[in-house]
Specification:
mainly beta
């Protein structure tokens, strides 16, 4: 009876000691991404002794001879953080997943660490050629702009993409309006491979002159959700038609004159900058400003009058907001569409100092 009580007490003490020694890991799995062939890659795992006593790593067993483990050989004090490094020799092309098991006096069961990735022939830095990242895709454009389009035109823009991930993707553009068509160079895109999407505008399907703007979404896979993370803007500027004007109509046409066509916002410790631009009709018939479009949420506009008689003047008030300007994804500017045959489209550039 006495002996059995001693054994039971020892078992309880042993269990208490084991539970007092515990290893935790911040991330038990590390994705190394693309790894260059024959160039060893190291994954670092951050661990901590969360037990109340020092612990000792007895052994780290790796899943193959191509994997080396570097770990502390001395005792690790209570509350101490430490690292375990796994290095893979990358001598085989393709996907890899390697494991290591940590055995210590802190637990009867091992703690498993995993490193994964894909070995490719060459790792290329595409951040210059493809500066925009959407998921595992990189692209050379975030905004598709069809400028100076005449009715009947079918201009196109080439969107170049590359798979910067480790799995095969199926890129596609979602939420296309009726006036846009897309043709892809390839349905599937392997890791490290480049592709092209040709976006064509059918101007006959545009309903109004001036600017038409919408959003499309670049998906990595079919059925991917729409969000601001994969949003791309598309704008088209359909110009008024003046080809049928007679010589007499041209001589008596309206003519727009602006006091300036560039706004240089100087914030200088201010949150906003306001500029006033005088607009005069120096022609011989009524001038009509049919469209006034802002390419950025950083801008706010007020226009006195849209229709000006000959020699009549109005004022365009432009306010540039500092924070929105600094965070603008697209180049801030203003587009004006008029019935002046010599200036059917006027672009006002917006720059800033003391941002």
């Amino acid at each position: 009876m006495y002996r059995s009580n001693i054994i039971a007490l020892l078992l309880v003490m042993g269990a208490t000691t084991a539970s007092a020694q515990k290893i935790t890991v911040k991330d038990s799995e590390v994705n190394c991404g693309k790894v260059e062939y024959f160039k060893p890659i190291t994954a670092t795992f951050n661990l901590k002794n969360k037990g109340s006593k020092s612990l000792k790593i007895d052994d780290v067993r790796v899943s193959c001879g191509c994997l080396n483990a570097d770990y502390p050989k001395a005792e690790i004090g209570s509350g101490t953080e430490f690292t375990v490094k796994l290095t893979y020799d990358a001598r085989q092309m393709g996907h890899f997943q390697k494991e290591a098991a940590i055995y210590s006096n802190g637990s009867d069961k091992p703690l498993f660490l995993i490193m994964r990735g894909i070995v490719v022939e060459e790792v290329t830095d595409y951040t210059g050629e493809y500066p925009y990242k959407i998921g595992d895709l990189r692209t050379d454009k975030l905004d598709l702009e069809f400028d100076d389009v005449n009715k009947g035109d079918k201009p196109f823009i080439e969107l170049h993409i590359i798979n910067d991930g480790t799995k095969v993707l199926q890129p596609n553009l979602m939420h296309l309006p009726p006036y846009l068509e897309v043709e892809s160079s390839s349905q599937y895109l392997r890791p490290g491979h480049q592709g092209k999407m040709t976006v064509t505008l059918n101007s006959e399907k545009l309903k109004e002159y001036g600017v038409t703007q919408t959003s499309v979404y670049l998906a990595n896979e079919l059925g991917e959700k729409v969000s601001t993370d994969n949003e791309m803007t598309v704008s088209a500027v359909l110009l008024p038609q003046f080809a049928q004007m007679s010589d007499n109509e041209r001589l008596n046409a309206p003519s727009i004159t602006l006091s300036k066509q560039e706004i240089a916002a100087n914030f200088s410790q201010k949150d906003k900058h306001t500029e006033r631009i005088d607009i005069v009709n120096t022609g011989k018939s009524n001038l009509h400003i049919s469209s006034l479009h802002m390419y950025s949420k950083a801008l706010k506009l007020t226009l006195g009058k849209r229709t000006l008689k000959p020699n009549e003047k109005t004022t365009l008030k432009v306010t540039v907001e500092r924070n929105a300007y600094n965070n603008a994804r697209t180049r801030p500017r203003i587009l004006m569409i008029t019935n002046d045959p010599k200036n059917p489209k006027i672009e006002l550039k917006v720059t800033a100092t003391n941002k």
